[in-house]
Specification:
This protein is mostly helical. The protein contains two helices and two strands, in the order E-E-H-H. A two-stranded antiparallel ribbon has the order 1-2.
Length: about 100
């Protein structure tokens, strides 16, 4: 999201830029989901990997999967926050326009 300022120093939110950021975040989230599927510990071929090696690999893949889930949640929270900020700015603009109309 761009943090441009107008002539009065107030931050201006570019709605198109914000939506571009949302699309990028959603793309990253999708890639995380795909990676989670590939790295799922249940995909370990039990006939080829045995004992401590299998246990260590399974443990690491489980940890990585958990981390990816956390990153996906952060992606979701970021998208939600960006959309909230844009909606808030839209409402503020609407309120100012209504106030300006009342004054004229």
């Amino acid at each position: 999201m761009s943090g441009l300022r107008d002539t009065s120093g107030k931050i201006v939110i570019d709605e198109a830029e914000a939506e571009s950021d949302v699309r990028s975040i959603q793309s990253a989230r999708s890639k995380l989901e795909e990676a989670k599927r590939y790295l799922d510990p249940r995909n370990i071929d039990g006939s080829r990997i045995y004992g401590a090696t299998r246990d260590a690999l399974e443990e690491q893949l489980t940890r990585i999967s958990y981390d990816m889930s956390q990153w996906q949640e952060r992606c979701d929270a970021s998208v939600k926050y960006i959309r909230h900020v844009v909606a808030s700015y839209k409402q503020t603009d609407k309120d100012f326009a209504a106030k300006a109309k009342e004054l004229n």
